[in-house]
């Protein structure tokens, strides 16, 4: 065919019976050389392998072997060893500094060389086609027909068996090694996740520490305090970060939840660690400059709905310093958890904001916990404590902390970095990242206002405790064991109907269909009800101003799915939910959360910076 390069005339000397399967040559960069430079236009892959260059830039001369007695399923495309080595040499000369570009070792790659020297009359036929792309290559294969072997070989069973072994080894050369590597990777993944789970359980006194600890332990009695020592007596600090959806470098919220293992030494964990979860301390830090921003395009943010403490408005320049105080004594032990359910935020100056919580039942302001310790000055600080850093997809949150100027990797007392995704994977075998809402549902924690950084941090730490304790109680996790409603799923129809939006089915890496984010932030009103199925409860959803349960979580709420969206590579659709106003009030004007009313304080109130919550007119 005109325009095609003619097959090169290469002298096939010394070993002219030796052939290499073309399949492994196509995968040299990733399978053999481990060169993953796909994004570089001048890299090995894009220069010699991508965009059909593998076929058009080198004058291949293909052979094939297809015998109905040896490999009846289809032809094996081969290249003479001389051509294969010449191709590798061409690539090596193009990239002389890359020492990874070598011809594969036949010992490391069994089946790499198919040697027909010992089989009389058997020689793979040469193909006259010179395909210039993958489509032409496939067309060439489809036209092939099996051939009969020379009787000098086919009439000798011992030769036929040996030939069959050679062809089978060459046919699966690349495939077999890929499967082995996948199996090794899976084994390594399972080992690493189980090690992470054991470390967390040892830190919580649920498993004996040391290299000789038994893998199989008697089920835990959740009514008794932990029987083992708390390995290294750590403080577990969970971090969650929310960023501006339009400016991914702008951090809008940071949630920090803390559990000091010294506080739970004499406390029985309870089912799913419910008693330990009561000891979690939480902080919700909001960047003052972005206090009027709410994410709504890819997720439905709810920065005003922190459920476990008092939101704190921090100037952007001070955020790193304030975050740093959470990693020193008293480790966020300033605020009571759970807080009263309502708050009023007043902005008096661009750098000054105050938050007041009100209790409608008492008609007065609810003070902070008077028994909580205050920050300890450096001169009287206690001895440095060991820290376990926890998160849900922790690496992402650590990267955001680094953006604001706080690098947790510089802390010498961090002994372990944990991730609830990893803990859940250890218990289910699921290699994909699982949504926080799904994990909460499985451990019987009612999730309210996910996508609020403070709430997410509390829920993530509570979920980690529940997974560790639940495993030692003998509970099972995963899709087959997840608690379910009457139809096997959470009944979200009332929520979606009330939201008046279109639910978008999102298929994540784990091929799990999640609820659309349109319902993520919807808070049911005091008169809302929902069929809870076998989940228990009275079926009523309480308002956020209603009573809280023993865990500090509002009772009776459905769990919403959290979206592990990354602003680097999101692939989400915006919901049809009504847009929220982003118009900021003038300084000195009071904002009543969850209402559409801006309240201007009286002059006397403006002096003190406090005002009682005012209910907007109907």
TrEMBL record:
One of its GO terms (cellular component) is nucleus. One of its GO terms (molecular function) is nucleic acid binding. Residues 235-337, 380-466 form the Gfd2/YDR514C-like C-terminal domain. Pfam families: DEDDh_C. Residues 603-618 have a biased composition (Basic and acidic residues). Transmembrane segments: none annotated. Residues 572-584 have a biased composition (Polar residues). InterPro entries: Gfd2/YDR514C-like, Gfd2/YDR514C-like_C, RNaseH-like_sf, RNaseH_sf. Residues 516-552, 570-618 are annotated as: Disordered. PANTHER family: GOOD FOR FULL DBP5 ACTIVITY PROTEIN 2 (PTHR28083:SF1). This is Gfd2/YDR514C-like C-terminal domain-containing protein. It comes from Elsinoe australis. The lineage of its organism: Eukaryota, Fungi, Dikarya, Ascomycota, Pezizomycotina.
């Amino acid at each position: 065919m005109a325009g095609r390069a003619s097959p090169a005339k290469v002298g096939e000397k010394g070993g002219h019976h030796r052939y290499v399967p073309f399949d492994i040559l196509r995968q040299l960069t990733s399978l053999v050389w481990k060169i993953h430079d796909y994004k570089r236009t001048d890299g090995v892959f894009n220069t010699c392998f991508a965009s059909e260059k593998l076929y058009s830039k080198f004058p291949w001369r293909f052979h094939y072997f297809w015998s109905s007695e040896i490999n009846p399923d289809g032809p094996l495309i081969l290249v003479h060893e001389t051509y294969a080595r010449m191709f590798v040499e061409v690539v090596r000369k193009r990239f002389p500094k890359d020492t990874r570009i070598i011809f594969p070792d036949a010992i490391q790659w069994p089946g790499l060389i198919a040697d027909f020297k010992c089989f009389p009359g058997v020689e793979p036929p040469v193909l006259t086609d010179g395909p210039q792309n993958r489509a032409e290559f496939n067309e060439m294969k489809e036209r092939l027909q099996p051939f009969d072997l020379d009787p000098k070989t086919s009439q000798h069973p011992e030769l036929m068996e040996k030939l069959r072994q050679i062809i089978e080894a060459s046919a699966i050369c690349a495939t077999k090694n890929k499967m082995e590597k996948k199996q090794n990777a899976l084994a390594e993944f399972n080992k690493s996740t189980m090690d992470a789970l054991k470390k967390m359980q040892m830190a919580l006194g649920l498993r004996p520490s040391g290299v000789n600890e038994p893998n199989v332990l008697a089920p835990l009695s959740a009514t008794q305090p932990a029987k083992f020592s708390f390995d290294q007596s750590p403080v577990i600090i969970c971090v969650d970060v929310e960023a501006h959806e339009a400016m991914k470098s702008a951090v809008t919220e940071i949630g920090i939840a803390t559990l000091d293992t010294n506080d739970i030494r004499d406390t029985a964990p309870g089912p799913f660690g419910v008693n330990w979860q009561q000891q979690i301390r939480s902080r919700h830090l909001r960047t003052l400059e972005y206090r009027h921003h709410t994410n709504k395009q890819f997720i439905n943010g709810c920065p005003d709905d922190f459920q476990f403490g008092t939101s704190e408005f921090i100037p952007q320049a001070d955020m790193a310093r304030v975050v740093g105080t959470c990693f020193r004594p008293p480790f966020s032990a300033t605020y009571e958890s759970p807080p009263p359910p309502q708050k009023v935020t007043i902005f008096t100056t661009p750098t000054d904001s105050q938050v007041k919580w009100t209790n409608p039942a008492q008609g007065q302001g609810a003070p902070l916990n008077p028994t909580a310790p205050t920050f300890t000055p450096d001169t009287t600080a206690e001895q440095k404590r060991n820290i376990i850093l926890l998160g849900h997809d922790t690496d992402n949150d650590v990267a955001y902390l680094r953006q604001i100027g706080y690098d947790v990797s510089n802390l010498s007392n961090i002994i372990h970095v944990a991730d609830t995704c990893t803990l859940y994977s250890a218990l289910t075998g699921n290699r994909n990242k699982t949504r926080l809402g799904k994990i909460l549902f499985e451990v019987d924690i009612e999730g309210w206002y996910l996508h609020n950084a403070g709430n997410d941090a509390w829920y993530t730490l509570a979920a980690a405790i529940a997974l560790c304790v639940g495993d030692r109680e003998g509970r099972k996790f995963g899709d087959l064991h997840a608690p379910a409603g009457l139809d096997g799923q959470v009944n979200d129809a009332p929520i979606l109907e009330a939201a008046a939006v279109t639910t978008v089915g999102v298929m994540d890496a784990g091929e799990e269909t999640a609820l659309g984010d349109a319902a993520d932030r919807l808070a049911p009103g005091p008169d809302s009800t929902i069929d809870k199925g076998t989940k228990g409860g009275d079926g009523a959803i309480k308002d956020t101003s209603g009573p809280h349960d023993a865990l500090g979580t509002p009772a009776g709420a459905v769990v919403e799915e959290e979206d592990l969206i990354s602003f680097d590579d999101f692939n989400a659709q915006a919901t049809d939910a009504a847009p929220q106003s982003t118009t900021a009030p003038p300084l000195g004007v009071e904002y009543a959360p969850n209402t559409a009313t801006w309240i201007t304080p009286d002059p006397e109130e403006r002096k003190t910076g406090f005002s009682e919550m005012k209910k907007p007119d109907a």
